[in-house]
Automatic annotation (TrEMBL):
Residues 20-149 form the Flagellin N-terminal domain. PANTHER family: FLAGELLIN (PTHR42792:SF2). The keyword Protease does not apply. This is Flagellin. Keywords: Bacterial flagellum, Cell projection, Cilium, Flagellum, Secreted. Flagellin is the subunit protein which polymerizes to form the filaments of bacterial flagella.
């Protein structure tokens, strides 16, 4: 219909119409054009569909939408960076608990004077250090590990030209000896001395008397134990009533770095530090026998306290790093929220320039349809009037 009306308008100069008919035809043509535009707005939801409609609004809206898209693309990277940071934060939380457990283990060693117990605690302490490095190595996310040091620094960009960014430095907790000063302690290795006892008659038992049943001891013998510096740390006097069991019990009760036992007619001494044992009859049980051992770093309280000092420094360092990661996480989450909101603002601004008011356009279409109907009626009336005049001349 639009084409027919347009053709009619183009040929009006060749057709003689009354003023009323010409006015009605022009009104109908304009109304039809406006209806086409309004229907287009309703179909697309936009009042500006191309630069031809409104160049300023079209290109301004396009620029706003392009920027919003760029920022939305950055949101994906921000989200992944947040997950990387959360993975590192979870790793630090676990590491903090393990360091606390290591500290507890050192304190346990400090509360006992038994060298063999201390050696066992040292072994368990080293196991905890291995777990710390293991957790650090497993705290990566999609190939990026903020607890792995090296090339694991994380850079997050906040705007389209990458001029605004946040760099999060990685820390290497896979090598805590270097990063935290937590080195494995020497567990130590016990030295052994086995001394067969000479029996006067029947085989010796734990209840046998050292003086009556063995040729190696006499009442009044002094059994001396000296440390690696030659200082006596304990001595024991043999009496006529001393049994093998009595001697073993006294050694174990009074010496923290020596464990004695008796089996198959022989005394065995396990030592955690260098020990020299002497005493007994001439050429008897002990002729200044020296037993060497690899000493544990936790043999003395000084060694344990030195470890505790390093542990405390490590705890403070890890807490500081956790705080740094926490601050970075807060900044990232806030920036993510801001970027989401700002991108939505840009899109809303673009919509205000090009999006049509559907209620308004619907009302416009209804008005135009009414106007079209009235124009058609007016044109019909004008035509009928002209035909009436012609009939007068018929």
């Amino acid at each position: 219909m639009t084409t027919n009306l347009q053709n009619a308008a183009d040929t009006m100069s060749d057709i003689v119409l009354s003023n009323a008919a010409r006015a009605s035809l022009l009104s109908l043509t304009q109304t039809t054009e406006l209806m086409g535009k309004t229907q287009g707005k309703l179909a697309t939801g936009k009042k500006v569909n191309s630069a031809l409609d409104n160049p300023n609004s079209f290109f301004t809206a396009q620029g706003l939408n392009n920027r919003a898209t760029d920022l939305t693309n950055l949101l994906d990277d921000m989200g992944q960076s947040i997950q990387t940071l959360k993975a590192a934060d979870q790793g630090i939380s676990a590491i903090t608990k393990l360091i606390a457990a290591a500290k507890a283990k050192a304190n346990q060693a400090l509360q006992t004077s038994d060298a063999f117990d201390r050696s066992q605690y040292a072994r368990e302490y080293n196991d905890l250090l291995d777990q710390i490095e293991g957790i650090a190595g497993d705290s990566g996310y999609k190939g990026k590990n903020l607890l792995g040091g090296g090339d694991n620094d994380l850079v997050v960009y906040f705007n389209e030209d990458n001029s605004n960014k946040l760099k999060i430095g990685a820390i290497d907790y896979t090598d805590i000896a270097t990063t935290l000063g937590l080195e494995p302690v020497e567990v130590g290795s016990a030295g052994l001395l086995t001394t067969p006892l000479s029996a006067n008659s029947a085989a010796l038992l734990t209840t046998s008397l050292l003086t009556a049943d063995s040729a190696d001891f006499a009442a009044g013998d002094i059994i001396s134990f000296k440390d690696g510096n030659g200082d006596e740390i304990w001595s024991f006097e043999v009496t006529s009533a001393t049994t093998v069991s009595d001697f073993v019990t006294e050694v174990n009760s009074n010496l923290d770095s020596v464990q004695a036992s008796f089996k198959a007619g022989a005394l065995t001494f396990s030592v955690a530090e260098d020990i020299t044992i002497s005493g007994g009859q001439t050429a008897g049980a002990f002729a200044s026998a020296t037993v060497t051992a690899e000493e544990s770093d936790w043999l003395t309280e000084a060694g344990i306290n030195d470890t505790l000092s390093h542990i405390q420094s490590a705890i403070e360092s890890v807490r500081l790093q956790a705080s740094t990661f926490g601050t970075n996480l807060t900044m990232l989450e806030n920036r993510q929220d801001f970027t989401k909101s700002f991108a939505a603002t840009l899109e809303a601004g673009a919509d205000k320039l090009v999006v049509a008011d559907m209620n308004e356009e619907g009302a416009n279409l209804l008005a135009l349809q009414t106007r079209q109907s009235l124009s058609t009626t007016a044109l019909s009336f004008a035509t009928q009037a002209e035909q009436g005049v012609l009939r007068l001349f018929g």
